[in-house]
């Protein structure tokens, strides 16, 4: 989709206060299970520094921090950041664009983004930034909506997206239009194999994914290679970094 960052940011600011409640309803409680799976995949360790991009209100960031790691929560929506700081004053929140992260090279032991990559105007640029700020040997974990491999499951999921989800959003959200965008962004987002190719394309190795909830969501993982020659090759493929101003 043609995503205008300012419009997407404003849309998320509008729904920030009730965002987590509505997500729990729309996912029929599965959002909690997806979060647990994501945190387990990250495997946070005490003393590690972990970057959580598109952190929203900080629900996932707080779950990661409970494992003893230091978490930096980044989001491009001022409303989400404000709500996150109100709920989790113990966390560090930074308002920033995932395509131009305000961090130096190789700062983090792990980087993660949940249900946010498809909201970024240039997801490949964002993946390159995640690679850049990750330490050699560091871990990438992406949790994102995907496409069920089963034809029967896909049909049922499409029906849910078209009929049930808009109805629940209308009853529970302060901005139902935001959830029309949600449906469109899910439908137009690439499948598991294509996202895996993107992740490999920016330089990550050991790329793999597993489906959650029959493929409604996919959990993708990768590693930044330790070998400097492999990292240099990946940097050449990505090209020059976008300016921060």
From TrEMBL:
Catalytic activity as recorded in UniProt: a 2-demethylmenaquinol + S-adenosyl-L-methionine = a menaquinol + S-adenosyl-L-homocysteine + H(+)
Protein's UniProt keywords contain S-adenosyl-L-methionine: yes
Primary enzyme class: transferase
Gene Ontology molecular function: demethylmenaquinone methyltransferase activity
Annotated residues for binding of S-adenosyl-L-methionine: 57, 75, 97-98, 114
EC numbers on record: 2.1.1.163
GO biological process, any: methylation
Pfam families with a match to the protein in the record: Ubie_methyltran
InterPro entries documented for this protein: SAM-dependent_MTases_sf (IPR029063), UbiE/COQ5_MeTrFase (IPR004033), UbiE/COQ5_MeTrFase_CS (IPR023576)
PANTHER family per the UniProt record, alphabetical: 2-METHOXY-6-POLYPRENYL-1,4-BENZOQUINOL METHYLASE, MITOCHONDRIAL (PTHR43591:SF24), METHYLTRANSFERASE (PTHR43591)
Task performed by this protein: Methyltransferase required for the conversion of demethylmenaquinol (DMKH2) to menaquinol (MKH2).
Protein name per its UniProtKB record: Demethylmenaquinone methyltransferase
Organism: Protaetiibacter larvae
Highest classification ranks of the organism: Bacteria, Bacillati, Actinomycetota, Actinomycetes, Micrococcales
């Amino acid at each position: 989709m043609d995503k205008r960052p300012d419009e997407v940011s404003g849309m998320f600011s509008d729904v920030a206060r009730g965002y987590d409640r509505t997500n729990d309803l729309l996912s029929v409680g599965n959002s909690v299970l997806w979060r647990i799976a994501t945190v387990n995949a990250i495997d946070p360790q005490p003393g590690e520094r972990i970057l959580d991009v598109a952190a929203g209100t900080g629900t996932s960031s707080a779950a990661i921090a409970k494992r003893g790691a230091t978490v930096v929560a980044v989001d491009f929506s001022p409303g989400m950041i404000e709500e996150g700081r109100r709920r989790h004053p113990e966390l560090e929140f930074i308002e920033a664009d995932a395509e131009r992260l305000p961090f130096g090279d190789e700062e983090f032991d792990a980087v993660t983004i949940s249900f946010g990559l498809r909201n970024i105007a240039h997801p490949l640029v964002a993946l390159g930034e995640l690679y850049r700020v990750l330490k050699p040997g560091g871990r990438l974990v992406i949790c994102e909506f995907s496409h069920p491999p089963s034809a029967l499951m896909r049909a049922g999921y499409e029906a849910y997206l078209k009929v049930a989800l808009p109805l629940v959003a209308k009853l529970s959200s302060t901005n139902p239009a935001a959830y029309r965008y949600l449906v469109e962004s899910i439908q137009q987002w690439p499948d598991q194999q294509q996202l895996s190719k993107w992740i490999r394309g920016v330089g990550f190795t050991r790329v793999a994914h597993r489906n959650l909830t029959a493929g409604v969501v996919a959990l993708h993982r990768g590693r930044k290679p330790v070998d400097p020659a492999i990292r240099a090759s990946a940097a050449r493929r990505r090209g020059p970094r976008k300016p921060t101003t």
